[in-house]
Known about the structure:
The chain is α+β, with helices and mostly antiparallel strands. Helices cover 18% and strands 22% of the residues.
Amino acid sequence: MAKVFNWQLGREMDYPYAGHRPQRQFCMIMDTNKCIACQTCTIACKSTWTWGRGQEHMLWNNIETKPFGFYPTGWDVEILERLGPQTWKGDTYTGKTIFEAAPDGEVALHWEPDQADWSNPNLGEDEPTGVAGEETYIPDTPHANMWMYYLQRICNHCTYPACLAACPREAVYKRDEDGIVLIDQTRCRGYQECVAACPYKKSLFNLETRVSEKCIGCYPKVEQGLQTQCTTVCIGRLRLTDFVNPPDKADPRNPADFLVHVRKVALPIYPQLGLEPNVYYIPPVHVPPKYLHQMFGPGVEEAIATYRNAKDDEELLGALMLFGSTEHIIASFDVKDGVARAYDKKGDELVAVPLREPEVVRSFSYATTTPDGKPATGYRHNT
């Protein structure tokens, strides 16, 4: 095992290959507070990439209700139970990653779902947890007694992918130009080591072609400077496709770097697993911090407090308002005079979004005429 630095853990860790970061790293940021689980993203992805034979069970993009939803069944519970205690000391992870906890002869700690585990993508949908109690009033914080939230999932295109590390055929590779992780299906022989090793279970096996497949980060669009299908169709405007830098190279004008490294409002999912995933989540504000700490690591309370303060932080509000505002990948942004502007890598303006829409109050009554031309007074139903 080589030693690589994982900034999400705050330390070096074991990994089968020497560390190498791509020229640019594809990433996605999800605002969990905006999702209504309409599944528009899921259908867009499905109809674009996984409509063929052997792909019937495949959802490269899925939305699941936490804490009881899973695709495949129990994906995170299974690996977390096997990993054991996951402890942090400040921002440094002091437990073991799946590579450090691997059994003898294995690359990573893993488990492989049964075929039936892929058959219930809407398991636990809209099911809350907690005790409702007998209160007849709404508490200060909605969902204070019972809660659930929607988790949006694609491949994390990890910096240290377990699928890549586990493949005996070296069929899985990470593109240097954008950090997207792909499977060379001409090399794959269907051993399914990637399916077992990926703790997020985003490598899937095609029963017809007998090779593995996964989310490709919509790289044909990314190569043209466009955001992914799931991002552009999202009616809640909760996604941002971008490129993220490591903390020591963060660019505060880049929206992904700004949200991840500057304001630190977007956090990685299960960073303790050790893959340095590149999908980041703005945590739901109404969920108990203890649960969120396990899923998103330290910094949850601070991220929620920062997000709640967005109305008084024009730069943060501007970055959030740019979600879903353009189909193009945003290279940089700024906020001036109450307007957030996004720019492409050439510096050309892509879109301008006002932070607050202008308000116009109309009078309740107004002068008008009857059908026969006589003066009359009209009244508005709303102002």
